[in-house]
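Page 47, continued from p. 46.
Same chain as before, 384 aa.
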Amino acid sequence: MYKFCKILILIFFNFLCLYPSAFSSEEKIKIGLLVPLTGEDKEIGNQIIKSTRIALKDINSEKLEIYPKDTSSDPNKTIKSAIELKKIGVKIVIGPVFYKSLNYLDEIQDIIFVSLTNKTLDLPNNVISGGVNATSQLNTIKKLIKLKDVKKTIFLTPTLDYESEVKKAIKQSKIKIYKHYIYDTEPTKLTKQIEKITNYKIRKQNLLDEIKRVENSDLIDKEKQLEKLKKRYTIGNVNFDSVIISDFDESLKSVITSFLYADVSPKKKLIITFNQWFDKSLLKEKSIQPIYYPSVNKKNLEDFENKFYKEFNEYPNYLSLLSYDLVGLIYYLSLNTELTNINKLFKRKNSFKGKIGIFDIEDNKINHRLNLYQVENSTLKEIF
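Result:
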C-alpha cells in the first residue's frame, strides 16, 4: 500500500473538473488518437472516438484537444498518421489499438504513444502499454491465493502467441508457482496432457486395485464398501491446491472440462483464470464452477456502458472504457508535468483512479489494480 504522503490518487474526472486553470501556460494539451477508422476494425475505432468525446465532456476543459487519425490497423498507415500528428505539435498519443500497428513508431522522436494493447514485450522505447496486462492480473491473483491460503499452484498456458508474455508476468509479479505447463489446445492432446498433470491413470488404477482388494476380502461390510467405491472415479490426491489457466472462451472451458474428466473438481481445487471481461456464457456452465478471475470494476463498467448508450444509442466495446480513462490519465499527469517535458510524464511514481480501477505508473509502465470475481451457482460475486 502506498503512503498517502507519497502518492496522490485523484477521484477521476469529478476532481479534475475543479482544476481547469491548473496550467501555468496557455498552451493547449494536444492529444493524438491513433485508431482504425477504415478497414475491418473501423467500428472499434469509431467507438473509441465516441468514448473520448464523453471524456472531453466530463473533463470540461478548453485546454484539452483531441486529434483522431486513421491507422487502418496497418503499421504503414499508422506511421504516416503519427508523422502527421507530430507536424501539428502533438506530443502524446492514445493508440494504436493493436500490437501489430506499433512496428515503426520508434522512428518518431519526442512523442509518447500510450497503446491500448495489453502486450508488454518488445515494445518500442516510445510506446507504453495501457491495456490490462498479464502482470496486473497476476498481482491480483496473488492476493486471492494468499486469501485462500493456497500452498501449491500450477500454471497452465496454451501454446499461443502470448506464452512469452505470461512467463514475463510470472517473473514480474513474483507469484509463487509450483509448476508451469504449456499445453496443446487440440482436444485429444489436451486431454492426455491433463491426465498426465493430474496422474489420472495412476489414480484410476488405485481405484481398480482397491475394488479388487475389497472383492477378495472377508470384510463384513464388503458390499457397502464396494458400492461406495463404484461411485468413485479415482483414488488418490493430486499434487496441487490451485490451477491458474491463462486461457479464454471455449478453450478455457475445454481445459476445465478436461480436469473434470480427470476427476479434479473446481469444488475441491481452486480454478483461477485471466480476465474474462464478465463473459456471461460462464454463468451457464455450472459443472465448471466455481471459477475465479481478475477484471476491471464491474459497477464502473456498467455505469460507463449506460452513459455511452444514453449518448449514442449503442453499447461500447471494452477498449472504449480504457480510452476514456486514458484521456483522464493524460490530463491528470499534465497537471503535474508540462508536456514539453514529455520524457518525465510516465517515469515518476504516480497513481490515478479511473473507471477501470487504479492505474499505477512508474518507469514508463502502467499496471492496473483490478478487482477479483467469482462465478459460482450461475452468479457473479465480487471477492475484493
